[in-house]
Each structure stands twice: as structure tokens, then as C-alpha cells.
Amino acid sequence: MTMKVKTILVSQPEPKMENSPYSRLIDKEKVKVDFRPFIHVEGVDAKSVRQQKIDLHNFTAIILTSRNSVDHFFRIAEEMRFKVPDTMKYFCQSEAVAFYLQKYVVYRKRKIYVGKMNFQDLNALFKKYKDEKFLLPSSDVLKPIVPETLDALGVNWTRGIFYKTVVSDLSDLKDVYYDILVFFSPSGIESLLKNFPDFKQNDTRIAVFGNSTINAATEAGLRIDIKAPTPETPSMTMALQKYITTINKK
Predict the structure, then answer these.
(1) Helix (H, G, I), strand (E, B) or coil at 89
(2) In degrees rounded to 5, what are phi and psi of residue 105?
(3) Which ranges carry the Tetrapyrrole biosynthesis uroporphyrinogen III synthase domain (predicted)?
(4) d(C-alpha 227, C-alpha 211), whole Å
(5) Residue range 137-191, pLDDT digits in tens
(6) Is 85 left (phi over 0), alpha (psi -120 to 50) or beta?
(7) CA gap 166, 123 in Å, rounded
């Protein structure tokens, strides 16, 4: 018999907005949801970037795929005492990234180009501005679709590793049990296994988001109980809601 769901651990930081989908899930299903990042980001220093033979003066455009890439580009620019010129073009993967850029630049005075959500949404813009020299500040972990897309378009681009994805210390959770563990990346699965090499799944349900996370969980020998996105449940909270409603009714 499958046990009812009372507790959930989400391997991400707690959402900052008050009325998040998780808040609604908690209210509706009367479950306890904790948030704990299984991975975190650490910046590399300017010396490490120089060793990658990257000179910020050589670029006319920056490709920004996340808020982390925004933060660490401007951090490195400051460490290198590089004054980012007003003529610099910014290609942002999503509106959220473009909006976050305002933390560093005066929005209306800059050349900012925005995709809808997926990296390929920028294709038309890359084709239009093919003569630019693009810098991609990234983590040491990069989705293959990014270099594949840029290479296929014949774009003049350089990748710089400006920050690294690091496994967080979760040793304080050693004796804590949750009914569901929620993962959003292969790195999260890696963190679970590094922190708890003797992890036995038993009655713990595993929820995963995205194909790469599904593959990582499967390769790790984990039983996947909840998957998202699907046509019926495009978000993780919707997938959790559907599962919990079904299980807790029994």
C-alpha cells in the first residue's frame, strides 16, 4: 500500500513570491513543504577567467542564460576593472533574465534583446546580429543545446566559465525523512548520491522535472514516481498536486 503524502522536500531555494504555487499546494493538500538547495553556485576569480584567454575588451555582445550569468559577468568585469561600454549588446534567454539585468544597467539606454523562454528562441536575433563577437558567461555545467545552437548558426562566440555548480553539504538531513523528494536537474540527483551514498529509496517518492533529470535519476537506479512537465501537468506543482490528490484519497 502506498503511504499518504505529508512531507515534501524541494531541492531548490524557497520561492520569494508570497503566493507561490507551492503555497497553494500547502493550503489545499495540508502538506509540509521544505526547501533546500542541493546545489549552489560559486564564482571563479578573475585570474581563472584570464587563464581561459578571455579579454572582455574583445566582445561586442553578451549572451545571458540565467540570473547567475548576469551576476557573475558583472562581478568579473568589476574584478578586472573593465568598464562595460554603453554600446554592449545583451541577448537574454528570457524576460526574467532581461528584467534582472536592470540591477546593473539602465534598461532604456541599453541594447537588450530578449527571447521568449527557450534558448532557440534567440535564433532569429543571432542571425540578425551575426557580425557581433559574443561572450557566453556560463557555469562549468552547460546544456548541450546552447553550443549546438550557436555553432549551427555560425555565430562568432566564446564561452567563459565564470562560476561553478557545487554540491551543497546536506549532512544535517541524514536522519530526516520526507515522503517526496523533488529534483529539477541532474546536479540535484548527483548531490543526493554524494551526500548520501547509502541512500535507500524504500517508500520515498521521487519527483523529477525535465528529461535530463529523468535520465539522471534512472541511471542512478531511482524509482521515479512523479514526472513533469507533461501535457496534463506542465509544472511540477501541478504534477505534485495530481499525485497527492490521488494518493491521499485512498
Answers:
(1) strand
(2) -130, 155
(3) 22-237
(4) 9
(5) 999 988 888 999 999 999 999 999 999 999 999 999 988 899 999 999 999 999 9
(6) beta
(7) 30
The tally of CA atoms less than 13 A away on the side-chain side of residue 209 is 18
Q: How big is the chain by its Cα radius of gyration, in Å? A: 21
Q: What does the alpha-carbon distance between residue 58 and residue 4 come to, in Å, rounded to a whole number?
A: 58
Taking a C-beta distance cutoff of 8 angstroms, is the pair 224, 218 a contact? yes
Beta-strand pair 157-167/39-43: antiparallel
Distance separating alpha carbons of residues 67 and 92, to the nearest angstrom = 10
Question: Which of 47, 6, 40, 75 has its CA nearest to residue 187?
Answer: 40
Nearest-CA neighbor of 8 among 169, 247, 249, 234?
A: 247
Measure the CA dihedral 222/227/228/229, to 10°. 110
- What cell was used for 182? 523533488
Higher pLDDT, 2 or 73: 73
Set of cell numbers at residue 109: 539606454
d(CA 250, CA 247): 6
Q: What is the pLDDT of residues 8-30, one digit of tens each?
A: 999 999 988 878 899 999 999 99
What number is the average pLDDT over the span 43-64?
97
CA distance 112 to 136: 15
Chain centre distance of CA 82: 27
Domains of the chain with CATH codes: 42-165 (3.40.50.10090)
| Residue 112 falls in which region: left (phi positive, over 0), alpha (psi -120 to 50) or beta | beta
